[in-house]
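R.M. (postdoc): so does anyone remember the format we settled on? I'll just put the structure tokens first.
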């Protein structure tokens, strides 16, 4: 194997470990926040209690189907499940996302006209998303 290939493989393994570890931590934090036992999460997602426990203990590398089941059951995106530190601190019980903090700082640096325009666009996007979710629930992925 070439040195570049070995570096790429090592990097992919490192990213997979970071995602697996983040999933374990985030899954436990979300479940605790909702005051759910592993059995309740298992019932909601169709996974077993052993799978939930293995994921939380970072012993299981989840398949895409498992990630989809968790995402659907918890009503959050897969990326929010596997992003490190996303659920570790909170304002009023909601996750604080580093990217959101950065975006708010960048928004504050804009002139008033640009800031008002972007805030208006975000409000329209939020209203549109809520209307779409309420009327269609198209965001849920049906598992076989």
């Amino acid at each position: 194997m070439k040195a570049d290939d070995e570096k790429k493989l090592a990097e992919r393994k490192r990213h997979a470990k970071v995602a697996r570890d983040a999933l374990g931590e985030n899954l436990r934090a979300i479940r605790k926040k909702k005051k759910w036992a592993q059995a309740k999460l298992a019932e909601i997602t169709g996974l077993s209690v052993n799978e939930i426990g293995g994921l939380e203990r970072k012993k299981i590398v989840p398949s895409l189907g498992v990630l989809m089941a968790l995402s659907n059951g918890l009503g959050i995106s897969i990326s929010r499940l596997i992003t490190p530190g996303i659920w570790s601190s909170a304002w009023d019980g909601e996750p604080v996302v580093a990217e959101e903090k950065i975006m708010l700082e960048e928004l504050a640096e804009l002139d008033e006209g640009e800031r008002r325009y972007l805030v208006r666009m975000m409000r329209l996007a939020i209203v549109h998303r809520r209307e779409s979710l309420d009327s269609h629930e198209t965001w849920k992925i049906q598992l076989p």
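R.M.: ...and that's the designed sequence above, right after the tokens. Also worth knowing: Strands lie at 90-91, 94-95. The longest helix spans residues 3-34.
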